[in-house]
What we know:
Elements: H1 8-11, E1 20-24, H2 28-39, E2 43-48, H3 54-62, E3 66-69, H4 74-77, E4 82-85, H5 94-101, E5 106-107, H6 109-114, E6 120-125, H7 130-143, E7 148-152, H8 158-164, E8 169-173, H9 176-179, E9 189-192, H10 207-214, E10 226-230, H11 234-242, E11 248-253, E12 261-265, E13 268-272, E14 278-281, H12 290-305, H13 310-319, E15 328-333, E16 336-340, H14 347-356, E17 361-365, H15 378-384, E18 385-391, H16 396-402, E19 408-412, H17 415-425, E20 431-434, H18 447-459
Parallel strand pairs: 1-2, 1-4, 2-3, 4-5, 6-8, 6-9, 7-8, 9-10, 10-11, 11-12, 16-20, 17-18, 17-20, 18-19
Antiparallel strand pairs: 12-13, 13-14, 15-16
Function: Cell wall formation. Catalyzes the addition of glutamate to the nucleotide precursor UDP-N-acetylmuramoyl-L-alanine (UMA).
Pfam families: Mur_ligase_C (PF02875), Mur_ligase_M (PF08245), MurD_N (PF21377)
EC number: 6.3.2.9
Amino acid sequence: MKNQEINISNKISNNIGSKKLVVLGGGESGVGTAILGKQKGYEVFVSDKGEIAEKYKEVLLHNNIDFEEKQHSETRILKADVVMKSPGIPDNVALVVKLRENNIPVISEMEFTQQFTNATIIGITGSNGKTTTTLLTHHILKNAGLDIGIAGNIGDSFALQVANENRKNYVLEISSFQLDGIEKFNSHIAILTNITPDHLDRYDYDFNKYIASKFRITKNQKETDYFIYDADDEAINNWLKKNKTKAKLVPFSLKKELSFGAYLKDETIIININKENIHMPLSTLSIKGKHNTKNAMAATMAAQLLKVRKETIKESLASFEGAEHRLEKVAKIKDVEYINDSKATNVNATFYALECMDKQTVWIVGGVDKGNDYTDLLPLVREKVKAIVCLGLDNDKIKNTFSNVVDIIVETAGAEEAVKVSEKLSERGDAVLLSPACASFDLFENYEDRGRQFKKAVRNL
């Protein structure tokens, strides 16, 4: 978040009048939305039930934006014309229910912001792979010379960027929670990487509700827009059989040859979506693993649809460094590889990580369970995992699932302890993998904090 004062009077482009914008949540998306809202002529009030971080408080004070923390002044909030809700606030909290009962629109940052930009949007969602695909798409488009921003769940908020620079193109990583708050928002190119059970605690433990949330990314697409999706994904295919989207379908697959789209043949990615076919041997990709092959397919097709030259695409795929906290190689100590996959906050992400392991692995797992079913991991754990180190406050489900296939299961209460125990359990030639399959909020601020603490502990060995 840049601590800079916005010249409000010079930048008001829409005559909003003095509509009241209430922003629930004083984090990255909330403060960015507040700045953009004030710039566009709204009367803005930020309300956070918790404590607002000092860096965000400074920005609000610097821009003379009214705010409160550690409470919600309900009477004032219910006078709003529109409310932007932070994605971390569930839809079923009493205040949000009351706002909707009073017919006050409760929208996401994406919905609020798009009305103030004419940029081409590449919107990316999915249970797994969306961060890597977003970073990779941005990397290719930036190398191609496009005026491109990256936002959503990455970096500065979308709203703040539109307030400050308003680029011609944006790649947005969009969560299901953000999609739940859209009505008119649209991506010219929408990418759905996959759908596997995740965040079910926010969707009444109903997988179909979560699937419907993900497909909101194509809700407002037109015939001139594109929907890139994983044609191997059962949940996606089932939805497409029963529902329609106006967008042109652009599939990718590792399992079948496609007459239109991207597929894998003889260890080579083949992309056939316009007159210029692309052939890329897997050996030329900087990121490895089946899931990353799919991420590369999706990003490449998005770039092709925006008329990027295939030489630029190939060079970008070879030079891309990958996402922090996603199968990130931290160090090799006494011939043991330490890998930070803290971003694996669900079972499917951990499945990908274990699938990539080509060494006997000490697996650090655990945290806040979001309704996980670990049974899909059993074959991989049986084959590759020599010991499990639990990193969470409630490890019963992990112990019950894996005690019959792994002899050694140890419970720890912090990153430093988990790393020290893992060092003792590992031998030369092994790997230590932090891939928690769970959220991090029991012991850490977020998955980044968990990953950073893990890396610090490894480097202190």
